Amino acid sequence: MTTTSVPLALLGLGHMGLALANRLLDAGYSLHVYNRTAEKARPLAERGARVAERPGDAVTRGGIAITMVSDDAALDGLTLGPDGIADALGDGVHLSMSTVGPATARLLAVEQARRGGAYVSAPVFGRPDVAAQGKLWGVMSGAAAARARVAPLLDVLTRGRTDLGDDPAAASVVKLGGNLLILAANAALTDALSLAAAYDIDPATLAALYGDTLFASPMIKNYATGVARALSSHAPNDPGFSVRLARKDVTLAAEAARAAGASLRVAETVRAGLDDATAAGLGDADVTSLPLA
Amino acid sequence: MTTTSVPLALLGLGHMGLALANRLLDAGYSLHVYNRTAEKARPLAERGARVAERPGDAVTRGGIAITMVSDDAALDGLTLGPDGIADALGDGVHLSMSTVGPATARLLAVEQARRGGAYVSAPVFGRPDVAAQGKLWGVMSGAAAARARVAPLLDVLTRGRTDLGDDPAAASVVKLGGNLLILAANAALTDALSLAAAYDIDPATLAALYGDTLFASPMIKNYATGVARALSSHAPNDPGFSVRLARKDVTLAAEAARAAGASLRVAETVRAGLDDATAAGLGDADVTSLPLA
């Protein structure tokens, strides 16, 4: 059986899941797909993907199931709920690419191992447009043999990955920490550009300064440009990383820290800013819309 | 009169001031220097710099005076205090490279203009070792003719600069905003690497991930590496950007925002972290020592 003929399912067809599915179809994989609202699967069906009506129907015992859903509850339901994938997958591999907490990762790893299979935690950094180009960066952890088995898939879906070993919680923690860094930079850019605007300094000038020379970072530049745009246009930016999902991630980071006896100062502040943005009706806007809250 | 024969003074010989003085001597400038404790001037005297006993004695009417001191009070005293440089400089240019608040910049600009001269605000990003290599990044604002006059000096002292126009407060505000970004990133790295350490994940692995791939930023990498070192060694890092100076800068940013009717959420959190570090005896350590507080 060649790599592309492994029974492969992809569950969760939001912006990220759709981008991943299209990459896999481009690379010649046969795909079973599932989404809670089936209509999102239609463009994939037109490309030859088979659409399942229930999660468990999408996966094959001993195969690989990729999941990309919005939060821990959705992942838990999809995996262990009625018609969930855990039993149907059996001794297969659950390649979980959602951003979830370390407790969920450990629980699902134990449950899949009880069924003879494995859970690999492989959340990714990047927005849907980056995913469509295969330029995401991944972090990965879980049982070694299962990590080796999903490696060819991750080669298609990402430009590279950091391997964090056997503990399925590790990749979750590193992903949450990375998102915290992004959100703290975004909140600090909101401070710095708002301060500058209060002194009649052009936010776009600053976005270039901070992104090109001071941090010399494409990511800082992207976020700074978004914050500058929100400040200048007084209009929210379209979501790539929404306030709602950001709030979920920073809450998970704070919970994961508390569970391990650490306390995070910046995380609480970033969350307060996202709370305010939500209250201001910006929940579905991009996080770079914070200056409008 | 060639550029290098303009009467030139440099006042304030801490680590940054000394590095700037040596660059100017290397480039062939004649220098008058002043420092509150004269003994720091000795290595410069051995290289031909003339050492003044009082600030006003270091500068020449119509010449250029560069200042690099630690805070607003020191700059104010050096400029307008007894034996200060403002009167002695007269219609010359005060090239102020310290990180100070916008109110101080505007006050000193008005005072120097009253004497027929000008104040150019030109704070720089970078540590003393970067200054020694001429690789600082500058931001500059002030009267146009005075900016043109000091340009050759900044060409020697920096690798480039962002010109922010006539308002002497602008460069101060942008410098404070930039330091806020750096300190927020440093505080978020402290959160993220502490969270990871609580899950037994190697901080050095994360420093590489966040610096090389996620942000792809030399500055993030430097700070992440420092935070990782503090976490692993349980020892503070030697100061490049000390907790004490960082606290001063973030306080100035918050004050400048309040004066302009803006409020900064991240700044207050970053300051609280620096307060804790100070209380823990880390005031003279590098800001990357925060995980030890």
Automatic annotation (TrEMBL), chains A, B:
This is 6-phosphogluconate dehydrogenase NAD-binding protein. Keywords: NAD, Oxidoreductase. InterPro entries: 6-PGluconate_DH-like_C_sf, 6PGD_dom2, 6PGDH_NADP-bd, HIBADH-like_NADP-bd, HIBADH-related, HIBADH-related_NP60_sf, NAD(P)-bd_dom_sf. It holds the Pfam family NAD_binding_11. The keyword Mitochondrion does not apply. Residues 8-159 form the 6-phosphogluconate dehydrogenase NADP-binding domain. One of its GO terms (molecular function) is NAD binding. The active site is at K175. The keyword 4Fe-4S does not apply. Residues 170-289 form the 3-hydroxyisobutyrate dehydrogenase-like NAD-binding domain.
